[in-house]
Amino acid sequence: MPVRIGVAAAVVAVLAGCGGGGGGSEEPEGLAAAEVCGGFAKDGDAAAALKAVLGGGRFDDDLSQHDRAVARLRDDAVAPWADSYRPQPVKYCGLRPVEGGPKDIEVEVGAVGKGPYLGPELAGSVTSYASGVEAFSSAGTGRVYFSCRPEATAHAIVVGTTVRGPAGVPDTDLDQRTRLVTLANAAARGVAAELGCTDTGLVEGVPAKTRP
Predict the structure, then answer these.
(1) 43 Cβ partners below 8 Å, 6+ apart?
(2) What letter would DSSP give residue 81?
């Protein structure tokens, strides 16, 4: 009798282990950086910036309109432009951390008019970077502009890429400025690749500062 009881107990233990109670094979919640919004943050620098900004490595999509944003840029490149033509930017990407509190980022893209895009009233309060036509950032917003001609029949447009980061970050946080412009630059590169843009002037990785 003691031998039979021991065998039965061993069988129960094996079955319990196969039932998934440990959760070791469960998929992690949320999306990895390489999976969000067309994969714009798949390279190491952008993924690290996204994790640092949102405080985690897994993300929930927050009403992104990635395909619509790219399609709108194609339409804007063939539309007749005039001084009164002001296309509205489209939410290219919206993300929240699966864990980490009430943080979020929003990436918008849109065709814009001629620059310069950094006026003298803001020049002293942002950090400028070398990428595209113009790039600059505060601790709350990063912006990158680049030129693109999507198709042979289209005219050249300037695409503005804006990343709005979590609120409440001190404007003296210079590292946050670099993180946001890195994300804006990565998104700009992703959009440029989808549109087939060449000679954009967009750099890889982290843009270098041109003025603190």
Answers:
(1) 186, 204, 205
(2) P
